[in-house]
Amino acid sequence: MVRTVYSPEYCLQYLEQYATKEVYVIGLILGQVTESRENVIHLARTPDEKNDASSEASYASEKPEPLRTLLDISETWVADHAKHVTRMLPGGVFVLGIFITSDEDIFEDPNYFSKVKSVLNYTHKALNSNQYMYGNIPNSNEKLILHMSTSTKVLTCKSIEVDVGSKMSIKPVEWKFLPKPQQWQRLDCYYDFDEVYPVLVKNSGISVKHQFQQILESAHKTIELCVMFIDGELKDASEPLEQVFKKRKIIIKRATDNPKSIQVSLFVPYENTFPETVQYSECDGHIHFSGVVASSIFMYPKATIKEATEAVKQDIIRSLASRFTMHCDALIDDNLLPEEKICFNEPPRRVLVPVGTSYFCDYLFPGEAPAEALVSVKELLDLQITEADVVCDIETPADTSEFDALDRDASSEELLATPQEASQFMYITGICFAMFVLIVSIFIHYYDGIVTCLSNFFSKS
User: Fold this and answer.
1) pTM score, whole prediction
2) Cα separation of 297 and 134, whole Å?
3) CA-angle at 249, arms to 243 and 255, nearest 5°
């Protein structure tokens, strides 16, 4: 059976505008794959290559080099573009492959096709370098190649397996354009973080990236265990999303209009267990990670609850991984130990940007205006939007008022104060009494077990 891909009609117009100019263009195919259907959401042209293609920061350069032939394409440049764009994708949306406009037939010319395979292989490996970014579709090595001839305007699509050595198979793909815009089911989730992590100094010092990697690993394990509730109810994993929305529509008696979004919640199953032995180790401080991560995903209506649950979890972890990477890249010093006893940090907050009938996202550092998002959207997604299009209220800036006292009195009991209503997450690094922090953390997590042990001890006495 031939694989079929569906995309909005404006993608055809997008391709034609470059093919008409008779220029070489390469870009990314962005979309969602479910058991019921494969949907392309957007095509994003890769920016012209700058002088230094080996660095992600090179996208800020102002000296583009025109692409003279497809053989001049830099694999690293396309891979960097894919990594940047992946940060902007909601959960459940991936880089499905690449598109090309050129005069040559890339499937017939062995030199060009070899170059295309090299680009896809390099991009696939680059996106796999950070497992928490979910750069590639889980359990799939197939990538799309969409080609439009600049001379004949003929469109050809095929799929190939990447990262499989010389056994790479090529399959035909039927690409269908939809005359009507695709309607998506939107699910919104707010996931609350309030965790304390110990900081351990090694011989090489404390690396911010290393500590964040540990936080991501811990968060990933917790979120993977979560159970998703829709409107406070646990749904059958095989039930299509559209059925849930139809039932909700009947309940709220809105016969002429579908609800725009639905609220979902993730709950961590509670296990009342206490280890037989507790190990104590010294640490040099702690990171208090606190706040709320806003998640908005867009799913094909016939997608199942199981697929939607996976997308929500991917979205939260991908958002954390993206912000941690951006935050670390912005740091002058990778050393986690602050000069003062308390160091407050606010990673970038999330905003939504419209792409077709759905939304992607971008991140703004404290003090940045929505206009900053326009630059990223234009450069990475090849889209023109206005400031009014940017949705900035899904996460609000962190409320730092409760931490003002920390600068005045680092020994105050307010060291463990936590903002109660901040919709943005933050982390506080403290260099304090390590054993005290560790004991408090253990006490909080294993309170019931400690009480039981103490009761048994005193009863025997």
Assistant:
1) 0.83
2) 14
3) 125
CB 116 within 8 A of CB 98: yes
Q: Which phi-psi region, left, alpha or beta, contains residue 305 (left: φ > 0; alpha: ψ -120 to 50)?
A: alpha
Q: Which helix (H) or strand (E) holds 265?
A: strand 261-267
Backbone angles phi, psi at 234, to 5 degrees: -90, 120
**Separation of alpha carbons 353 and 244, rounded Å:** 26
Residue 212 pLDDT level (bands cut at 50, 70, 90) = confident
Amino acid identity for residue 23 in this structure: V
**Homologous superfamily (CATH) for 4-48+68-178:** Cytidine Deaminase, domain 2 (3.40.140.10)
Q: Return the half-sphere exposure (C-beta side, CA atoms, 13 A cut-off) of residue 117.
A: 18
Would you give the DSSP letter of residue 36? S
Task: Tell me the sheet residues that pair with 197.
Answer: 287
Per-residue pLDDT tens digits for 360-403:
999 999 889 999 999 999 999 999 999 999 999 899 877 666 66
* Cα 58 versus chain centre, distance: 22
The ranges assigned to domains in the chain are 4-48+68-178, 185-299+304-334
> What dihedral do alpha carbons 95, 97, 101, 104 form, nearest 10°?
160
Q: Give pLDDT, residue 10.
A: 94
Residue 417: DSSP 8-state: -
* Residue corresponding to tokens 């025109």: 66
Cβ pair 29, 43 in contact under 8 A: yes
Q: Is 347 left (phi over 0), alpha (psi -120 to 50) or beta?
A: beta
Task: Give the contacts of 90 (CB within 8 A, at least 6 positions apart).
Answer: 295, 296, 297, 298, 311, 315, 358, 359, 360, 361
Phi, psi of 179 (to 5 degrees): -70, -30
The residues near 336 (Cβ < 8 Å, ≥ 6 apart) are 199, 206, 207, 208, 211, 285, 287, 429
Nearest Cα to Cα of residue 294 among 351, 348, 366: 351
Neighbouring CB atoms inside 10 A of 164's CB total 11
